[in-house]
Amino acid sequence: MRKTGHGHTVNYLDHSRVTKYVAVEPNVHMHAELRRTASAAGYSEDAGTLLILPCGAENISTILSYLPAPHPPVDTLISVLTICSIPSPQSTISGLVTEVLKPGGQMLFYEHVLSERKDVMWWQRLWTPLWSIIFDGCRLDRPSHRWIEDVGGWVQGEGGIWGKEGETEEHLFWHRVGRFVKA
Ligand SMILES: C[S@@+](CC[C@H](N)C(=O)[O-])C[C@H]1O[C@@H](n2cnc3c(N)ncnc32)[C@H](O)[C@@H]1O
Question: pLDDT class for 7, splitting at 50, 70, 90?
Answer without folding.
Answer: low
